[in-house]
Amino acid sequence: MALPKLSLEEKRKALKKAQDVRSKRAKIRQNLKKGKTNILEVLANINDDVVAKMRVVYLLESLPRIGKVKTKKIMNDIGIDETRRIQGLGNRQKQALIERLGSN
User: Which of 16, 42, 52, 82 could disulfide-link to 87, CB 3.0 to 4.6 Å?
Assistant: First the structure.
């Protein structure tokens, strides 16, 4: 499948939109790291496209005292693939994350 031909203006708009999304995700991750928000609040905003398309790995690694090793263990224990995005989580997986990390 060939990529669509975009005008220079369309490319600029697409780049601006991508930058905005990355900035919003970075802000969410920063708030998680500082404890200003928690996993419950993030999962409650699953209808927000910025949250929905965030990878679960990045969400977990943004939590205080959770690094790459703990993230991998948690995801393996719950049965979440490392490439899964938040919008792709099942109800049981969300509930398991909340039970395990709800206080973070």
Answer: 52
